From TrEMBL:
It is an enzyme of class 2 (transferase). Keywords: ATP-binding, Kinase, Nucleotide-binding, Thiamine biosynthesis, Transferase. InterPro entries: HMP/HMP-P_kinase_dom (IPR004399), PM/HMP-P_kinase-1 (IPR013749), Ribokinase-like (IPR029056). This is Phosphomethylpyrimidine kinase. Residues 7-256 form the Pyridoxamine kinase/Phosphomethylpyrimidine kinase domain. It comes from Saccharomonospora viridis (strain ATCC 15386 / DSM 43017 / JCM 3036 / CCUG 5913 / NBRC 12207 / NCIMB 9602 / P101) (Thermoactinomyces viridis). SUPFAM superfamilies: Ribokinase-like. PANTHER family: HYDROXYMETHYLPYRIMIDINE_PHOSPHOMETHYLPYRIMIDINE KINASE THI20-RELATED, PHOSPHOMETHYLPYRIMIDINE KINASE. GO terms for molecular function: ATP binding; hydroxymethylpyrimidine kinase activity; phosphomethylpyrimidine kinase activity. It catalyses: 4-amino-5-hydroxymethyl-2-methylpyrimidine + ATP = 4-amino-2-methyl-5-(phosphooxymethyl)pyrimidine + ADP + H(+); 4-amino-2-methyl-5-(phosphooxymethyl)pyrimidine + ATP = 4-amino-2-methyl-5-(diphosphooxymethyl)pyrimidine + ADP.
């Protein structure tokens, strides 16, 4: 299940999550948190879904269909984050014994437009991170959550340690924004061991939805029974290919691709 906002441009948000789920062989369930008016230029408008409807969506699908892994994306407001935390706690998602819970702490779109309100950061840090099986911040989100500025690969370790102190069981610091690094290295930390996940940096401006693809492939891996380290490696493999096959669309930043997992003859 993804608990996320909709992107009318179909590059990020729940559209990216569902596309990733399908191409990873899992059935996607959705709790919509917000509808954004979005294209390759940015987020132009949005409306948030009432918190009780977000809670209702989670409860309805969990009660009837069950979930094997859950991820969050855009959560829109402190109120929605508090409600998601309460509801997930009640239905057994996250924490030490619940269904694996991947918290992608989405704070802004890649164009810099905020995706939660002023109360969102505190709610994310105090309520959601302690419940997370794994948190998957980019470097802007690392700075917001910990105050640490990461500009070099070596600094990712201190950031991972600081993030783990906020309560998640695993931390994945994503290095996509270290644009001077010829490799794109993500760092996994379990509280004891650091594991670097390197991949060649693809020379493309079209990376819209990369973070969503990474987190939802990871979530798909968990739903299919992989361990956290296995699912993280699977997510990294998936997103590296998705970025390699990204394509231009609209006036600015195009989407990463899921088509690389679709049979060649069906892509024409
Ligand atoms: N140019 C690139 N080539 C290869 N992998 C990349 C590239 N850019 C990002 N990635 C990978 O994509 C994933 C998302 O990384 P990033 O740090 O950009 O997060 P994000 O800001 O949440 O993503 P986005 O805003 O693009 O959706 C990471 O696994 C990262 O290593
Ligand atoms: C609805 C929604 N959810 C998430 C993102 C983040 O994705 P990105 O960092 O690629 O802009 C987004 N732009 N829109």
């Amino acid at each position: 299940m993804t608990i996320a906002g909709s992107d009318s441009g179909g590059a990020a948000g729940l559209e990216a999550d569902l596309r990733t789920f399908i191409t990873c062989g899992v059935h996607g369930l959705v709790a919509v948190t917000a509808v954004t008016v979005q294209n390759t230029l940015g987020v132009h408008d949005r409306t948030d879904i009432p918190a009780h409807i977000v809670a209702g969506q989670i409860e309805a699908v969990v009660d009837d269909m069950g979930v094997d892994a859950v991820k969050t994306g855009m959560l829109a407001s402190g109120e929605i984050i508090e409600t998601v935390a309460d509801t997930c706690e009640r239905v057994g998602i996250g924490g030490d014994t619940g269904v694996p819970f991947v918290v992608d702490p989405v704070a802004a779109s890649m164009h810099g437009h905020p995706l939660f309100d002023d109360t969102g950061l505190t709610a994310l840090r105090d309520r959601l991170l302690p419940m997370a099986t794994i948190v998957t911040p980019n470097l802007d989100e690392v700075r917001l959550l910990t105050g640490l500025e990461v500009t070099r690969r070596e600094q990712m370790r201190d950031a991972a340690v600081a993030l783990r102190e906020l309560g998640p069981r695993f931390v994945l610091v994503k290095g996509g924004h270290l644009t001077d690094d010829p490799e794109c290295v993500d760092l996994l930390f379990d509280g004891t061991t650091f594991t670097e996940l390197p991949a060649p940096r693809v020379d493309t401006p079209h990376t819209h939805g990369a973070g969503d693809a990474m987190a939802s492939a990871l979530t798909s891996g968990l739903a299919r029974g992989m361990s956290i380290p296995e699912a993280t490696r699977f997510g990294k493999w998936y997103v590296s290919n998705a970025v390699r096959h990204s394509y231009p669309m609209g006036a600015k930043v195009g989407p990463v691709s899921a088509f690389w997992r679709v049979a060649e003859e069906d892509r024409e």
